[in-house]
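Reader question, answered in our methods column.
A reader sent in the components of a multi-part assembly and asked whether the whole thing could be modeled at once rather than chain by chain. We filled in our standard form and ran it. Here is what they sent:
COMPLEX SIZE: three components
ENTRIES:
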Amino acid sequence: MMEIELPKMHPSQQDMDLIDILWRQDVDLGAGREVFDFSYRQKEVELRLQREKEEEKQQQRLREQEKALLAQLQLDEETGEFVPRSAPPTHTNTTNAEVTQNEAFAEQDGDAMSFDECMQLLAETFPLDEAAESVPPCLDASVPPSTDLMMPSDIPAFTQNPLLPGSLDQAWMELLSLPELQQCLNMQMQDSLDMDGFMKPSTEAQDPNYSQYLPGMDHLSSVQTEGCPPEYINTYDGSFNTMVSPNLSQMSLNVPDVRAEFGPEEFNELFYPEMREVKVNSGPLTSDEGNTVSQLVEIPSDPPVNTMDLHSFSPGSFSSGKPEPMSEFPDSDSGLSLDASPHTSSPGKSLNGDGSFGFSDSDSEEMDGSPGDMESDYAEIFPLVYLTDEAQASLSEKPPAEALQMKAKNPKIEPAEASGHSKPPFTKDKQKKRSEARLPRDEQRAKALQIPFTVDKIINLPVDDFNEMMSKHQLNEAQLALVRDIRRRGKNKVAAQNCRKRKMENIVGLEYELDSLKEEKERLMKEKSERSSNLREMKQQLSTLYQEVFSMLRDEDGKPFSPSEYSLQHTADDTLFLVPRLKRFS
DNA sequence: ACGAGCTGTCATTGA
DNA sequence: CTTCAATGACAGCTC
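And here is the structure of the entire assembly that came back:
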């Protein structure tokens, strides 16, 4: 019996052993145990087929709703996500809606496709390298092998394309036009979407916004104009450009949505929750708010055009004596009195008796709370700042609309990527994103305080140039403090990076030195052992020679000398003496 | 949930 | 005395 059953058991057991061996070999490469499980894979294939069927069914249904929903989307330039076009005028819950947007996607019920499913469907439908490259890294988990972002073959195709920005943009536009994506994205937004007055074709709606992210790109406005409703253009040209410097007027246009969503109180509270009390008590501030409101009235009900951005984020408005206090007092970041602002004279404004708000770096850090939270808030308020200086510079130098749109659609694309270079692995990408996300905090603060310099200049300028630059502008105490802090932090950040780099190099150098010292020790030990052995051998030979010579010596009577009574001694001049041994007295 | 690694920031020190 | 780079320590974040 056993002999019969064994042959049946044996092969399967062997298979399992083989699988185990293979798995152990591959587990280091990230392969899961189930990769070798046939039934598991079969199940997976079945599941995928079933899912594809469902998706195909849904695709038909979703296509019908595409047109209606197409117009409701607006690309969030900061996150690259699609958000409802409009911001409800009320102060309620808009932040929550935005903040929970991603979660909302994930919480879709079975009727709607998940975002990953949408992206997978997109990848299957449009197996473009560019599209694959454009897919946010977080989606790669569900992307089928055909669009494997890590495929090396993607890279040449990506880099060889001379029209990369255009191609990328085209791919994005195709993605945007996909009904599945539209539907998927829209279903979550429908509820909070205010259709009144904001129903515009998405392309029309997006382009103007992209232009806002291109500093110094006023000339492009003519391009944007073609697809832009007249009221936008009028608003920009008339209301803004007269009071705001051209660069920032466009940049700041993003903020209004936030302002409209948060309202003055929420806006500041978002930044500086602790300052609420101060705000309430401050008379001039409310008057400033009045200014704000009046400006808001002047700029009629146009969502992209709002107030806070006008006076708080543009140097031009700074010189024109706009209600700066609100924007500057949020963050001195240096513990200096913000009261020093020439425009703020209200005694009631001071939180502390001495007129200082008591903002220190640590205070501001506390207000920042968890950097993730605050920075995401910053990101919502100042999405534009996520364009690095380099990116802005490159954009302003070479402003193809495709590149601009691409940048706006995915602002976190590195300039190198935008120029067609291959992407590093996702882990690195995420690290990069993280550092990028942390980077612009000071930039945002500088914008909020209307610092008329770039953070890059503040940090990297030599001392003399920096002082010269500072002397050319009249900055109030808060601004000076912030600039100093930015410079200090920036320098220190670089110093820390250098320090760590040096430390790592030291460690590597020490390890190398340790290795070589170990080798040296090994070599010396070996040499010592050899020499010791040689010495022993020479001693042996010397002893033999000694005995030989000694035995040949004879006294006057012809008798040999007794070794116990005499010994041979050798002097430096090669003379041999026969020396009687000293008698020991016991 | 926990720990490791990375990064930014602050405080301190010495040149 | 001031400025600045270097560095230890800490906190927050990601994996």
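What stands out: The beta strands of chain A are 73-75, 82-84, 566-570, 576-580. Residues 514 and 520 of chain A are 10 Å apart (CA to CA).
Send us your own complexes using the same form.
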